[in-house]
Amino acid sequence: MADPYRPDQYPEVVTHPVHGVGDAHGYYARIDNDTHKEASNENDTHKEARSDNETGKEVAPQYYPAQYQNGQYLNGSNGVVEKAPWVAAAAPGAHHDGSADLPQPVSTAPTAWWKRKRIWVSAIVALLVIIIAVVVGCVVGLKKSSSPSEPAQGDSAGSSPGPNGTTTNAKSLCRGTTCNPLFSAERFNDQIHLFARGDDDAYWTRVHDGKSWVGDWLSLGGKFQSQPDSMVWGRVRSRMSLMGVSTNGTMMMKYYYTNNTWDSDWFTLNATTNSPVTSCYVPWGNPFDHGDLYARSPVNTVQGLMRGTIYGEGDENYKNVPDPDHTCLWETFDRGGSVGSSVAVVCRDSNLAQDMVMYQRGTGSVAHLQWKDGGLTSWTDRGGAFAGEPVLAALSTTDPDNRVDFFGTGQDRHIHHFTWTKSGNYTPMEDIGGDFQSVPTVLTTSSGRYDLLACGTDDRLKHRAYVGGQWAADWEDLGYFCNSAPYAFPLSSSTYQIGVFVLGEKNDIQFATWEVSSDISWKKMSTFESIQGKMTGAWMASEA
């Protein structure tokens, strides 16, 4: 696999008004205009029955509207003063003695104006209290929904900034598990080729020319259960290989050539496995020109390491293999370990040295093994209890001390680290903290510098740098939602630009860039944007 960590290659409310209530109208005691006191009985609106001067007959009591004062009527709807209408006319044949043919006077006394006013005021106050309570409740609710919060143990996290900087209430696919890497990328023919598995289980690719994305996603077909793996190899790096584990467990491969064409079909690598496949290539210039593939043996009684070889034209065995371009020869090694994960591998530019780490079956401890001097060492158990897949990186593939660094997400959700060198052997296992639900991606951006990215248990993307032998003070929150383990890859060796990839809420791929600088922080990373696609968030986990 082309090593993305090689510095020698990649230096680089609207509120609504509440309407009021109209005035009530009724009958009120008439107020004398001269004295502003209650009128006397002879002027009272409710007069006793009296005799008609012309007929000598008694007439019924007479009533006036409450708005009537001194013969005038106040129209409450428009404020116009009018002549008062006659409200209650005399009934013919009415008698003062209250006989049956007389109309009876109004039996209910009018309610005092101040009592009715108090009722309406009370109603209005109650209505206002209800409205204020509703508004306050809405405002508080909105504030809570828009503010990030720390989740309680076992609860879902609060809202997080989305990939484009907006707030999202989505839950990451990594919740309750440890996400493994989903993507792979290679630099070939001066372009970056990104690979991912679609929701149709086919492998898909899209190309970046170092400045922008070129064309649309291209389906490469196939039916796979594993995430893709890739490498550039062959004489003068003349081909790029894409590999994966099919839905029936068979390892498959397809080539891409310098004339920008793909093989028309996938071909089998003549082996089955129950773990993802990883690849490694020693650059041409070495007497041997071949690619190495690693996977876990599917035979449960062995649980050994499988190593396959793809021969290139520079290898002495090339001419002895029928159809060498489409042949892989496998061997299984039992070196004392019980392989319980995929194998992470780093290849050297010299001496055919290769370093591998895996997690032990059953315990989850990490073990280290090397290929050197034409053979494999035994597994060395370094302890710990890990989840997901292991990560192995080198600050330089030309380092004479052959330094390699292991990084893994523990079952305690912290990321742990150790170093091996030829001169100093192993460093103690180091807890570099955090609280994570994904495997980290590790990037070498300059000599002596590592940059780690991982998805926190709050669904946010986190970063920490290792520079000059020292870790940054703490993990920094980059403020973006992560729906998968992140992936990082150098986009350009001339501008020191890094591409960062995560799965979006809609299973598209989100992409951002970061310029390599001496700044230990990644706060100047660009905003994520969608590069489309419809990918799966599932990954192949090694069977226990």
Automatic annotation (TrEMBL):
Superkingdom: Eukaryota
A family per Pfam: DUF8189
Region (Disordered): 1-58, 145-171
Entries under InterPro entries matching the protein: PLL-like_beta-prop
Keywords: Membrane, Transmembrane, Transmembrane helix
Official protein name in the record: PLL-like beta propeller domain-containing protein
Transmembrane segments: 119-142
Domain PLL-like beta propeller: 330-538
Organism, scientific name: Echria macrotheca
Composition bias, Polar residues: 156-171
Lineage of source species: Eukaryota, Fungi, Dikarya, Ascomycota, Pezizomycotina
